[in-house]
Design goal:
Blueprint lengths: L1 H114 L4 E11 L17 H13 L4 E4 L2 E2 L6 E4 L2 E4 L2 E4 L2 E6 L2 H8 L5 H7 L3 E12 L6
Antiparallel strand pairs: 1-7, 1-8, 2-3, 2-7, 4-5, 5-6
Amino acid sequence: MIRRGRQSKLKKIKVSGKHVILSLVFLVLGYMIAFSYHVTQKEIQKKQSSLSNKQYEKILDLRNQLIAQEETNRKLQKELNQKQAKVLENEKDLSKEAQVFFNLAEDAEKYRMFLGKVKVKGEGVKITLADGAYNPKVDNVNNYIVHELHIFKVVNELYISGAAAVAINGQRLTSHSYINCNGPVITVDGVQHPAPFIITAIGDPDVLSSAVNLVGGVKDQLVNDNIVFSLEKENEIIFNPIIGS
């Protein structure tokens, strides 16, 4: 009985020893798992922290680059605006100079036309002045003859109304032309022309004819002086340049 009791007691002690060992094993294993988890979490947090810092630094660097680029763009835009303003100013100056040159060229062309140095072609008017029918009852026959005064009235009115060129019996007038009356003939720059006198002018036909036909104007004055007056509008008149001086 005593031996069986000792065996039973020894058996209980062995069983308890196994439980203690298993408990220690599980305890150590749990500690190792917990420690490993804790270390792993620290590593993960460290990596995450390191990654976050790198991302922040990268974002900050990109932001600084963007700010610097925007500042550069503002400076370039300001410089561009200044250059555009300068270009606009230069264009205005050039346009003024171009207008001046255009006006000079236009004036030179007009002077050449007045001097008879260039060929002129265009529409205009043809005015014919003829001596009036002689009345034997009138003592002075000159009252029925076309004089240089009548020619001057027509020519001056045509020039004033914008005629570009004028000719008498096909002889083109210049700024230096002179007209003399010698009895029944008219001398233009030394060349004699008998009546009737055909005065042709290049310009706006409506304007020229309206100016000459004004009430109390050139036409009425000539008719009152017994001059036979007629006016026709022409679609094309050609004046060749004057050769020589």
